[in-house]
Design a protein that fits this description.
Keywords: Plasmid. This protein has 189 residues and is α+β, with helices and mostly antiparallel strands. Helix content is 31%, strand content 21%. It has one domain. It is built from six helices and eight strands, in the order H-E-E-E-H-E-E-H-H-E-E-E-H-H. Strands 3-8-7-6-4-5 form a six-stranded antiparallel beta sheet. A hairpin with a 4-residue loop joins strand 6 and strand 7 (139-144). The protein is globular and about 45 Å long.
Length: 189
């Protein structure tokens, strides 16, 4: 375990670690069991009524790089709600965030502006990907290498504007090289 001070002074997320209570930590461990943090995919058996949406990065529109994340935050932002951010794994033996004291889990207000901070933090630099989950359990998103975002959202909460994120799966099949397409299609299963 890496003890303090593992957080560098210039890490943009420095002020957001070590703020979770026991209940929030227990809830996040439940979320983690439903995600394959090594493959950056969801175990959909844990989420029978949720649908997987796919968004691609739009680097020309910072900080709203992922329009889907911005839409989800706006839709589910309630008084007292938060976002929890933690890294994907690069080793099968232990959750990456558990290797640190305090745990490498950031708790932020529900605001898209934190996406840019996380993408510049140690969390991103460790292995290129991270998870964001809202405290209301409305959505969980995996962001990989800043290129694509896979989100799991309650099927009952999807207005028609989210249809384009379902159609993105077809774009993969039509346009990506076979290796990348195969790994992203695996994520859809």
């Amino acid at each position: 375990m890496l003890d303090r001070p593992w957080i560098e002074d210039n890490d943009p997320m420095k002020g957001f670690y070590d703020y979770l209570n026991e209940e929030e930590i227990a809830w996040l461990y439940g979320v983690v069991r439903a995600i394959d943090l090594n493959q950056a995919t969801f175990n959909t058996n844990f989420f029978p009524n949720k649908v997987q949406l796919l968004d691609f990065s739009n680097y020309s529109d910072e900080p709203y790089q992922f329009e889907l994340l911005s839409d989800l935050i706006n839709k589910f932002n309630n008084v007292g709600s938060f976002l929890f951010w933690f890294p994907l794994n690069n080793d099968c033996s232990k959750n990456e965030f558990e290797k640190f004291e305090p745990l490498m889990i950031a708790k932020t207000p529900m605001n898209i502006m934190y996406l840019k901070k996380v993408s510049q933090s140690m969390m991103q630099m460790m292995n290129g990907g991270y998870v964001v989950a809202d405290s209301g359990n409305n959505f969980i998103a995996i962001i990989v290498d800043g290129y694509y975002m896979l989100a799991l959202v309650d099927d009952n909460n999807l207005p028609i504007k989210y249809e384009k994120y379902l159609k993105n799966w077809s774009l993969i099949e039509e346009n990506l090289d076979s290796i990348t397409a195969k790994s992203l299609i695996h994520a859809r299963l």
